[in-house]
Amino acid sequence: MAKVLIHSLLFAPDSVSDAYLYTDLARELMKLGHEVTVLTTTPHYNVLPEVIEAQPLRPRCGTWLLESEVDGITVFHVRVPSKKPGVSTRTKTALRFHALSTWWALRGMNRHDIVISPSPPLSIGVVSWALSRIWRVPSVYLVQDVFPDGLILDGKITNKWII
Protein backbone atom coordinates (compact mmCIF):
# COMPACT_ATOMS: atom_id res chain seq x y z
CA MET A 1 0.00 0.00 0.00
CA ALA A 2 0.98 3.67 -0.32
CA LYS A 3 2.89 5.96 2.01
CA VAL A 4 0.60 8.99 2.30
CA LEU A 5 1.62 12.42 3.57
CA ILE A 6 -1.22 14.68 4.68
CA HIS A 7 0.18 18.22 4.83
CA SER A 8 -2.47 20.36 6.50
CA LEU A 9 -2.67 23.55 8.55
CA LEU A 10 -5.19 21.83 10.84
CA PHE A 11 -5.31 18.33 12.30
CA ALA A 12 -6.04 16.71 15.65
CA PRO A 13 -5.76 17.78 18.41
CA ASP A 14 -7.10 21.09 17.03
CA SER A 15 -10.85 21.00 17.58
CA VAL A 16 -12.31 22.56 14.43
CA SER A 17 -14.16 21.08 11.46
CA ASP A 18 -11.14 20.91 9.10
CA ALA A 19 -9.08 19.15 11.78
CA TYR A 20 -11.86 16.59 12.30
CA LEU A 21 -12.21 16.09 8.53
CA TYR A 22 -8.52 15.36 7.90
CA THR A 23 -8.13 13.28 11.04
CA ASP A 24 -11.01 11.12 9.82
CA LEU A 25 -9.43 10.92 6.34
CA ALA A 26 -6.13 9.75 7.87
CA ARG A 27 -7.93 7.11 9.95
CA GLU A 28 -9.81 5.78 6.92
CA LEU A 29 -6.63 5.62 4.83
CA MET A 30 -4.98 3.64 7.65
CA LYS A 31 -7.96 1.25 7.73
CA LEU A 32 -7.44 0.68 4.01
CA GLY A 33 -3.86 -0.39 4.73
CA HIS A 34 -1.96 2.78 3.81
CA GLU A 35 0.89 4.16 5.91
CA VAL A 36 -0.14 7.70 6.86
CA THR A 37 2.03 10.52 8.19
CA VAL A 38 0.72 13.99 8.95
CA LEU A 39 2.65 17.26 8.83
CA THR A 40 0.66 20.05 10.48
CA THR A 41 0.85 22.89 12.98
CA THR A 42 0.63 22.91 16.74
CA PRO A 43 -2.97 23.28 17.92
CA HIS A 44 -3.86 26.96 17.61
CA TYR A 45 -7.52 27.38 16.65
CA ASN A 46 -9.83 25.76 19.17
CA VAL A 47 -7.67 24.08 21.77
CA LEU A 48 -9.48 21.87 24.29
CA PRO A 49 -7.37 20.70 27.26
CA GLU A 50 -8.98 17.25 27.38
CA VAL A 51 -8.12 16.66 23.71
CA ILE A 52 -4.50 17.71 24.28
CA GLU A 53 -4.31 15.28 27.22
CA ALA A 54 -5.51 12.45 24.98
CA GLN A 55 -2.93 13.32 22.28
CA PRO A 56 0.10 14.79 24.06
CA LEU A 57 2.75 16.54 21.98
CA ARG A 58 6.41 15.61 22.54
CA PRO A 59 9.46 17.62 21.44
CA ARG A 60 10.99 16.18 18.27
CA CYS A 61 13.46 18.74 16.89
CA GLY A 62 14.31 21.62 19.19
CA THR A 63 11.36 23.77 20.18
CA TRP A 64 9.94 24.24 16.69
CA LEU A 65 8.82 20.68 15.91
CA LEU A 66 6.73 18.40 18.08
CA GLU A 67 5.38 14.90 17.51
CA SER A 68 2.23 13.10 18.57
CA GLU A 69 0.29 10.00 17.62
CA VAL A 70 -3.39 9.43 16.99
CA ASP A 71 -4.66 5.91 16.29
CA GLY A 72 -1.25 4.77 15.03
CA ILE A 73 -0.76 7.81 12.80
CA THR A 74 2.47 9.75 13.34
CA VAL A 75 1.76 13.48 13.45
CA PHE A 76 4.50 16.12 13.21
CA HIS A 77 3.53 19.58 14.48
CA VAL A 78 5.37 22.75 13.44
CA ARG A 79 5.07 25.26 16.27
CA VAL A 80 2.99 28.32 15.36
CA PRO A 81 1.52 31.06 17.56
CA SER A 82 -2.09 30.91 18.72
CA LYS A 83 -4.67 32.16 16.24
CA LYS A 84 -4.69 35.93 16.20
CA PRO A 85 -6.61 38.29 13.94
CA GLY A 86 -4.92 40.22 11.20
CA VAL A 87 -3.70 39.49 7.71
CA SER A 88 -0.08 40.19 8.62
CA THR A 89 -0.02 37.71 11.51
CA ARG A 90 -1.79 35.01 9.52
CA THR A 91 0.56 35.53 6.56
CA LYS A 92 3.63 35.23 8.79
CA THR A 93 2.19 32.08 10.39
CA ALA A 94 1.54 30.50 6.98
CA LEU A 95 5.02 31.38 5.69
CA ARG A 96 6.65 29.97 8.83
CA PHE A 97 4.61 26.77 8.52
CA HIS A 98 5.44 26.41 4.81
CA ALA A 99 9.18 26.95 5.31
CA LEU A 100 9.61 24.70 8.34
CA SER A 101 7.30 21.94 7.16
CA THR A 102 9.02 21.82 3.77
CA TRP A 103 12.41 21.63 5.46
CA TRP A 104 11.22 18.80 7.74
CA ALA A 105 9.57 16.90 4.87
CA LEU A 106 12.82 16.99 2.88
CA ARG A 107 15.33 16.50 5.71
CA GLY A 108 13.53 14.63 8.48
CA MET A 109 11.12 12.36 6.65
CA ASN A 110 11.39 9.66 4.04
CA ARG A 111 9.86 9.99 0.60
CA HIS A 112 6.10 9.41 0.42
CA ASP A 113 4.06 8.02 -2.48
CA ILE A 114 1.48 10.82 -2.51
CA VAL A 115 1.05 14.24 -0.90
CA ILE A 116 -2.43 15.42 0.11
CA SER A 117 -2.81 19.11 1.01
CA PRO A 118 -6.04 20.94 1.79
CA SER A 119 -6.56 24.68 1.72
CA PRO A 120 -6.65 27.00 3.58
CA PRO A 121 -4.21 28.54 3.20
CA LEU A 122 -4.31 28.58 -0.59
CA SER A 123 -0.51 28.77 -0.65
CA ILE A 124 -0.19 25.24 0.76
CA GLY A 125 -0.83 23.96 -2.76
CA VAL A 126 2.54 25.35 -3.84
CA VAL A 127 4.31 23.39 -1.10
CA SER A 128 2.40 20.23 -2.00
CA TRP A 129 3.33 20.67 -5.65
CA ALA A 130 7.01 21.29 -4.79
CA LEU A 131 7.24 18.18 -2.60
CA SER A 132 5.53 16.09 -5.26
CA ARG A 133 7.99 17.29 -7.92
CA ILE A 134 11.03 16.63 -5.73
CA TRP A 135 9.77 13.16 -4.74
CA ARG A 136 8.34 12.53 -8.24
CA VAL A 137 4.96 11.53 -6.84
CA PRO A 138 1.39 12.76 -7.34
CA SER A 139 -0.12 15.46 -5.18
CA VAL A 140 -3.74 16.11 -4.38
CA TYR A 141 -4.67 19.71 -3.62
CA LEU A 142 -8.08 20.10 -2.02
CA VAL A 143 -9.39 23.64 -2.47
CA GLN A 144 -12.11 24.53 0.01
CA ASP A 145 -13.33 27.44 2.14
CA VAL A 146 -12.88 29.92 -0.70
CA PHE A 147 -15.59 32.57 -0.67
CA PRO A 148 -14.84 35.33 -3.18
CA ASP A 149 -18.43 36.64 -3.31
CA GLY A 150 -17.87 39.36 -0.71
CA LEU A 151 -14.76 40.65 -2.46
CA ILE A 152 -16.57 40.68 -5.80
CA LEU A 153 -19.60 42.50 -4.37
CA ASP A 154 -17.33 45.06 -2.67
CA GLY A 155 -15.59 45.71 -5.99
CA LYS A 156 -12.21 44.48 -4.72
CA ILE A 157 -12.07 41.80 -7.43
CA THR A 158 -13.18 43.14 -10.80
CA ASN A 159 -11.08 41.20 -13.30
CA LYS A 160 -13.56 39.19 -15.40
CA TRP A 161 -10.94 36.50 -16.09
CA ILE A 162 -10.51 35.84 -12.35
CA ILE A 163 -14.24 35.97 -11.65
Describe the model:
- The chain is 36% helix and 23% strand.
- The longest helix is centred in the middle third of the chain and has 21 residues, at 87-107.
- It has one domain (3-153): Glycogen Phosphorylase B (Rossmann fold, 3-Layer(aba) Sandwich).
- The protein is built from five helices and seven strands; from the N terminus they run E-H-E-H-E-E-E-H-E-H-E-H.
- The mean pLDDT is 88.
- With 163 residues, it is α/β, with parallel strands linked by helices.
- The N and C termini lie far apart (40 Å).
- The chain has a seven-stranded mixed beta sheet with strand order 3-4-5-2-1-6-7, with helices on both faces.
- The protein is globular, with a radius of gyration of 16 Å.
Which strand order spans the largest sheet, edge to edge or round the barrel?
3-4-5-2-1-6-7
What's the architecture in CATH terms?
3-Layer(aba) Sandwich
Which oligomeric form is depicted? single chain
Number of helices: 5
Helix content: 25-40%
Strand content: 15-25%
Nearest-integer average pLDDT? 88
Number of domains: 1
Short structural summary:
The chain contains 5 helices and 7 strands. The mean pLDDT is 88.
Descriptive key words:
about 160 residues, alpha/beta, Rossmann fold, 5 helices
Topology at a glance:
Layout: E1 3-7, H1 17-31, E2 35-41, H2 49-54, E3 58-61, E4 65-70, E5 73-78, H3 87-107, E6 114-118, H4 124-135, E7 139-142, H5 149-153
